[in-house]
Each structure stands twice: as structure tokens, then as C-alpha cells.
Q: What sequence folds into this?
């Protein structure tokens, strides 16, 4: 009884994934993110691009391609990489710092132009002011990168 229902669902126009994403196409071209932020971390572009690729490919079943006629095309740039003070004990003593990363994404869905968008996604993570940024940075980038990849995936494929 369950098999006919499953086959009927898969035979329709859309493929539905367990993440709630609706996938109409077969392939995607995810371009390397440009790093246009004032503060440049050499590995940030490749790290964030890989997180985004991994999230999309693992959740959609789309095939990665590097051609211009892909069903989906994603281009982006890192626009902000900044550290700021978020908590202070007194006027001169910071207790918390915040790393903020913003990525501007242009997504083109060649099968449904209404789904196209250009949007900036911003996430941050706080760390103790007693820690050096260089020490906290790998974990912060990991955390923020995962959040950004989730946000971009949801905007592109889950329609939230």
C-alpha cells in the first residue's frame, strides 16, 4: 500500500526531500564566493563556499556542475567580516566580542523565475574578550558558516 503512494509522489513534477525542500531541477552551479569584505581571512571564501555546497548537495540530490546552463545558479560574495564589542564590564573593559559575517547571494532558478532572489544573509557569534580572535576564529567561522548555509538553503529551496 505504501509503495504505490510513494511512487505516485515521486512521479509528480517536483521532488520532495526530507528537509522539506522542493527540488524541480537536476543540477546546480555554485560559484566560489568572492571575498569583498574589508578584513580578508584567506581561507574564509573557500570554507564558506564548501559549507554552502555541502549543505545544498547533501539535502537536495542535485548534481554540481560548472556550466552556465544549470537549472540553478548561485553566485555570492562575502561583504562583511567584522569584530565588535558586545558586552562591557565598565567603560573601558570589554567582556564579550562578536564576529559578524555577511554574505550577499544571487540565486537564479531557471525553472521558476519567481524563486530568483538577491539577498544579504548575516550571522554572528560571540566570544570572550579575553580570547584572541585568532584562537576563537576557527570555531566561530564553523558556527557562523553552518548558520549561513542553513539560511541560504532555506531561502533557495524551502521557501520560508
A:
Amino acid at each position: 500500500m505504501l509503495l504505490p503512494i510513494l511512487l505516485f509522489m515521486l512521479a509528480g513534477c517536483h521532488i520532495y526531500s526530507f528537509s522539506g525542500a522542493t527540488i524541480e531541477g537536476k543540477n546546480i552551479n555554485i560559484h566560489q564566493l568572492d571575498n569583498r569584505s574589508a578584513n580578508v581571512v584567506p581561507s574564509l571564501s573557500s570554507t564558506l563556499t564548501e559549507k554552502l555546497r555541502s549543505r545544498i548537495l547533501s539535502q537536495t540530490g542535485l548534481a554540481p556542475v560548472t556550466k552556465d546552463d544549470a537549472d540553478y545558479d548561485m553566485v555570492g560574495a562575502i561583504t562583511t567580516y567584522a569584530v565588535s564589542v558586545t558586552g562591557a564590564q565598565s567603560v573601558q573593559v570589554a567582556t564579550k566580542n562578536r564576529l559578524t559575517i555577511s554574505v550577499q547571494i544571487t540565486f537564479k532558478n531557471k525553472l521558476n523565475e519567481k524563486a530568483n532572489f538577491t539577498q544579504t544573509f548575516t550571522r554572528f557569534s560571540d566570544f570572550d574578550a579575553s580570547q584572541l580572535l585568532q584562537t576563537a576564529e576557527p570555531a566561530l567561522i564553523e558556527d557562523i558558516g553552518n548558520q549561513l548555509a542553513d539560511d541560504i538553503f532555506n531561502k533557495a529551496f524551502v521557501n520560508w
In short: Residues 58 and 113 are 24 Å apart (CA to CA). The longest helix spans residues 133-158. The longest strand covers residues 72-90. The chain has one domain: 25-158.
